[in-house]
C-alpha cells in the first residue's frame, strides 16, 4: 500500500477499502486498543476529574501563553539550554540545520516527533546531505517504505507483519518470509543500535514543557529518545508552543492520562524529564508556532490547542478505523487532524470535516475534553460558506431542503421509496448510484411509515 | 522584529477568556496494599519486583537471575555491590554499548503505574539506564518498611520531587517494549530486555 497523494478523503478511503479483509483487520486492531483504554480509564475512579483538570490546565495555559513562554525560556536558559523561536516550518528547519552545521553533524537519530513530520524536516535534511534515521520502530518501518506515519502513536498500524517482513528483507536483509514479530523487532534493534552509536546529534519531540522549571518531558516505550540523546553531545528538542504547561506538578495529571488514553498502558515505559543539557553537552529547544497562534483567536477552535496527541480519538473513530490514516493525507489524521488541517489549509483539506459521522465518540474519549465533533460540525458550515463544497454534496442538500419544505411531496416520496426498497431487485438498489449501499445493507422498509403510525394512534386516542 | 517577538505578539494579542488552574489536592486513588499493587502492575508491564534483606540478599537475588550470572560486562552504582565496569572511569558513554547488566539506584516507586523514579545524580552516564541488555533497580528501604518507598499515585510522586539541580530524571515502568508490528507486544525494543526491581530492607 503506497502513500496516498490525493487530498480528497473519500477517494483515498475508497482505495483503502478495496481490500475488505484488511479494512476489517485495521478496524478491529484499533478497536482492541480502544477497549484497553476503557479498561484503564475504569481502573481510576478519578478519571473524569483528571480529564476536567487537564482541560482546565490547558485552557488556563493558552489564556496566558505568552507569559508562560517567556517564563519557560527564562528558566530553560538558566539551566543552560539554548532556546530558539521559529514562526514557521521553514524557520524551524533552518535552525536545525544551522545547529547541525555548527557541529559538522552528518548523521542524526530522531525519535518520534509529529512536529518535525509536520515541518517535513527529514526531506529537508536529506537534501542537505544529512542522514536522518527515525528510531521509533513503527516510524523506522514507514521511513524505510518511504511512507508517512498513518497514526500519531502507532505509525505503522496500517501494516501487516508480512509487509514489515518484506520491508526488512529488502532493507535490513532479514530472512525472506520470516514474519515473526520477535525476530523482526530484534533485527530492528540491532540495526538501530548501530545507528545510535554512530549518531552525531539526537533530535526528539517534546510531550510537555514546564514553564516553572524550564524542563521538558519526553515519553516513549522503546527508550529510543533516551538512547538517541544520551550518546551524542547535542540534543535538539522540537516543540509546538502549545506543549507548554505551567508547572512540573501538573505532569501528575497529564502523565496519568496520556498512556492510558493512547495505548491502554498505565504509563509509558520511560517518561524522561530533561532539565538543561548534561555535563559538557548542549540542549537546544526550538519553540515553533507554524500556525498555532492563529487558532487562539477563535472561540470555536481554540480548544483544539489542548490536544496532547494521544491518538485516542483516532482509535475510537469509526471512519478512521475503516479508512486508514493515510486517507487523511495529513501528518495528523483522524478527528483532531480533520480540525487542524483544514484550519491550516482549507483548500486542500476541505473534505476532512465530512469524514465524520458526528457520533461524538472522539469527544467522549478525549483526555483533555476537546469537543471534537462539535468543532467538526462548525467547520462543515464554514467549508460550505466558503463555497468549497463539491456539487455532489450541495445539490442533494438543496433538493432535500426543497422537498422538506413540501410535506405532502415528502410523504409521497417516502411511500415511493418504501415501495422500491421492498420490491426492486438488489442490483437496482446496490449500485454506483447509491453510495449508502456500499459495504452496507440498506434498512428494511417498515410496514408503516411513522406518519401512518402516528395518524393511527392519534385516531385511537381521540376522546370519544 | 525577531521571530520571538512576532510569536509573542501573535499570542498576546488575543482575546482569550481567562480560566483558573484547578486544585491538585483531590481525592486521588489510594491502595490498601500499595506494595502488592505495585508488584502486580509491574508484572503486567513485563517487570519483576522482589524484597531482599540487605546487600547480601541483593547479591543472592541477582545470582538467581541467569542473565546476571551470564553477564560479561556489568555496571553497579550500588554501595557494596561490585560491577566490572566503573562508570566514573568511563569518559565516552559509547563504550558502554556492550554492558550486559546494570544495577542502579532508584529513589521511590509508584503503585498506580509500576514506575520507579530514577535520576542521574548517582549515575555518571545516564545512558547506563538505557543501553544495557538488562537493568536492575534498587530501592533502599532505610526504615525496613517497603511501604516507605512507595507512593500511591503520580500526584504524590510529584510532591516528593524537587527541581533544584540540572537533573535528569525518569519514571521507568518495566523493560523497553514495542507493539509496532501488528500490535504484538515485544519486550526489548532498544533498551533493557528485562527490568528487575529490588526492595532492599
Ligand atoms: S484530540 Fe484528544 S483524543 Fe485526539 S489526540 Fe488530541 S488529546 Fe488525544
TrEMBL record, chain A:
GO MF annotation: an example: metal ion binding
The keyword Zinc belongs to this UniProt entry's keyword annotation: no
Origin superkingdom: Bacteria
InterPro entries in the cross-refs: 4Fe4S_Fe-S-bd, 4Fe4S_Fe_S_CS, FTHF_cligase-like_sf, Helical_ferredxn, LUD_dom, LutB/LldF, NagB/RpiA_transferase-like
GO BP annotations listed: lactate metabolic process
Pfam family, one: Fer4_8
Biased composition (Basic residues): 454-464
Presence of keyword Repeat: yes
Keyword list, A-Z: 4Fe-4S, Electron transport, Iron, Iron-sulfur, Metal-binding, Repeat, Transport
Annotated 4Fe-4S ferredoxin-type domain residues: 298-327, 347-375
Residue numbers spanned by region Disordered: 1-20, 442-464
Name of this protein: Lactate utilization protein
Organism of derivation: Bremerella cremea
From TrEMBL, chain B:
SUPFAM superfamilies attached to this UniProt entry: NagB/RpiA/CoA transferase-like
InterPro entries: FTHF_cligase-like_sf (IPR024185), LUD_dom (IPR003741), NagB/RpiA_transferase-like (IPR037171)
Domain LUD: 94-200
Organism superkingdom: Bacteria
Designated name of the protein: LUD domain-containing protein
Natural source organism: Bremerella cremea
Higher taxonomy: Bacteria, Pseudomonadati, Planctomycetota, Planctomycetia, Pirellulales
Amino acid at each position: 500500500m503506497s502513500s496516498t497523494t490525493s487530498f480528497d478523503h473519500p477517494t483515498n478511503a475508497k482505495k483503502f477499502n478495496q481490500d475488505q479483509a484488511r479494512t476489517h483487520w485495521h478496524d478491529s486492531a484499533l478497536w482492541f486498543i480502544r477497549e484497553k483504554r476503557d479498561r484503564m480509564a475504569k481502573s481510576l475512579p478519578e478519571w473524569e476529574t483528571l480529564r476536567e483538570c487537564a482541560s482546565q490546565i490547558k485552557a488556563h495555559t493558552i489564556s496566558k501563553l505568552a507569559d508562560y513562554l517567556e517564563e519557560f525560556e527564562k528558566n530553560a536558559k538558566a539551566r543552560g539550554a539554548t532556546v530558539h523561536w521559529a514562526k514557521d516550518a521553514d524557520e524551524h528547519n533552518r535552525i536545525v540545520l544551522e545547529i547541525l552545521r555548527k557541529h559538522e553533524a552528518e548523521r542524526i537519530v530522531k525519535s518520534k516527533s509529529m512536529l518535525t513530520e509536520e515541518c517535513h524536516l527529514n526531506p529537508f535534511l536529506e537534501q542537505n546531505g544529512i542522514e536522518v534515521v527515525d528510531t521509533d520502530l513503527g516510524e523506522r518501518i514507514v521511513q524505510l517504505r518511504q511512507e508517512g506515519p498513518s497514526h500519531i502513536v502507532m505509525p505503522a498500524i496500517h501494516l501487516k507483519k508480512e509487509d514489515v517482513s518484506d520491508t526488512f528483507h529488502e532493507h535490513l536483509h532479514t530472512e525472506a518470509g520470516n514474519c515473526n514479530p520477535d525476530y523482526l523487532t530484534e533485527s530492528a534493534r540491532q540495526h538501530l543500535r548501530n545507528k545510535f552509536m554512530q549518531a552525531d546529534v539526537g533530535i526528539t519531540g517534546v510531550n510537555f514543557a514546564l514553564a516553572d522549571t524550564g524542563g521538558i518531558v519526553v515519553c516513549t516505550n522503546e527508550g529510543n529518545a533516551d538512547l538517541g540523546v544520551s550518546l551524542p553531545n547535542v540534543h535538539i528538542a522540537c516543540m509546538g508552543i502549545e506543549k507548554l504547561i505551567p508547572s512540573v506538578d501538573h505532569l501528575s495529571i497529564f502523565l496519568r492520562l496520556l498512556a492510558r488514553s493512547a495505548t491502554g498502558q498505565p504509563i509509558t515505559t520511560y517518561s524522561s524529564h530533561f532539565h538543561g543539557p548534561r555535563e559538557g553537552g548542549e540542549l537546544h529547544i526550538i519553540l515553533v508556532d507554524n500556525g498555532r497562534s492563529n487558532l487562539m483567536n477563535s472561540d470555536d477552535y481554540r480548544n483544539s490547542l489542548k490536544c496532547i496527541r494521544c491518538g485516542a480519538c483516532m482509535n475510537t473513530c469509526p471512519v478512521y478505523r475503516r479508512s486508514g490514516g493515510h486517507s487523511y493525507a495529513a501528518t495528523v489524521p483522524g478527528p483532531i487532524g480533520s480540525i487542524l488541517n483544514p484550519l491550516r489549509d482549507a483548500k486542500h483539506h476541505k473534505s476532512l470535516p465530512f469524514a465524520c459521522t458526528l457520533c461524538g465518540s472522539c469527544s467522549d474519549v478525549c483526555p483533555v475534553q476537546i469537543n471534537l465533533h462539535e468543532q467538526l460540525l462548525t467547520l462543515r458550515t464554514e467549508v460550505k460558506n466558503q463555497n468549497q463544497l463539491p456539487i455532489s454534496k450541495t445539490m442533494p442538500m438543496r433538493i432535500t431542503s426543497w422537498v422538506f419544505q413540501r410535506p405532502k411531496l415528502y410523504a409521497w416520496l417516502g411511500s415511493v421509496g418504501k415501495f422500491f426498497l421492498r420490491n426492486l431487485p438488489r442490483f437496482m438498489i446496490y449500485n454506483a448510484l447509491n453510495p449508502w449501499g456500499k459495504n452496507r445493507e440498506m434498512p428494511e422498509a417498515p410496514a408503516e411509515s411513522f406518519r401512518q403510525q402516528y395518524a393511527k394512534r392519534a385516531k385511537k386516542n381521540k376522546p370519544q | 522584529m525577531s521571530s520571538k517577538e512576532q510569536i509573542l505578539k501573535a499570542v498576546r494579542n488575543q482575546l482569550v477568556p481567562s480560566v483558573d488552574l484547578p486544585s491538585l489536592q483531590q481525592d486521588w486513588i489510594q491502595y490498601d496494599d500499595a506494595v502488592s499493587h505495585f508488584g502486580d502492575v509491574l508484572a503486567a508491564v513485563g517487570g519483576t519486583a522482589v524484597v531482599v534483606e540487605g546487600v547480601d540478599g541483593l547479591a543472592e537475588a541477582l545470582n538467581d537471575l541467569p542473565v546476571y550470572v551470564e553477564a560479561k560486562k556489568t555496571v553497579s552504582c550500588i554501595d557494596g555491590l561490585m560491577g566490572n565496569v566503573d562508570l566514573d572511569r568511563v569518559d565516552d558513554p559509547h563504550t558502554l554499548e556492550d554492558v550486559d547488566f546494570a544495577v542502579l539506584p532508584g529513589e521511590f516507586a509508584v503503585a498506580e503505574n509500576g514506575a520507579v523514579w530514577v535520576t542521574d545524580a548517582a549515575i555518571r552516564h545516564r545512558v547506563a539506564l538505557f543501553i544495557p541488555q538488562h537493568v536492575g533497580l534498587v530501592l533502599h528501604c532505610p526504615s525496613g518498611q517497603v511501604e516507605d518507598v512507595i507512593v500511591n499515585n503520580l500526584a504524590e510522586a510529584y510532591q516528593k520531587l524537587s527541581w533544584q539541580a540540572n537533573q535528569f530524571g525518569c519514571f521507568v515502568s518495566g523493560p523497553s517494549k514495542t507493539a509496532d508490528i501488528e500490535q504484538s507486544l515485544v519486550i526489548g525494543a532498544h533498551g533493557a530486555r528485562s527490568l528487575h526491581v529490588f526492595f532492599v530492607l
